[in-house]
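Sorry to interrupt, but I need a hand with the structure work. Could you add the entry underneath, on a fresh line?
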Amino acid sequence: MHKNELIRQVAAETQLPHQTVARVINQTLRTITAEVSSGQRVVLTGFGTFELRDRSVRRGVDPRTGADLVVPATRTPGFTCSATFKRRVGRTMTDEPPPIG
């Protein structure tokens, strides 16, 4: 599912205008991005946590030449899903969907 499909589905399920849902989803994503960029964690209870992670310096290989190289330390965004989300996604196809909330 792409973002436009998500917006369309949320608008249909909530009976809110498409433009309103699009503004809310886009602002939500901008807020998550800004908070994580500034080093803050964003916890969406029942869904997961977005955070900035530090990656150490490591050795690598240049795929073109095969030469060893050093990959510098970086900061990268990360997401850890909640146990609730894992349970919902991991259920078998014959299970009834768990209640939301």
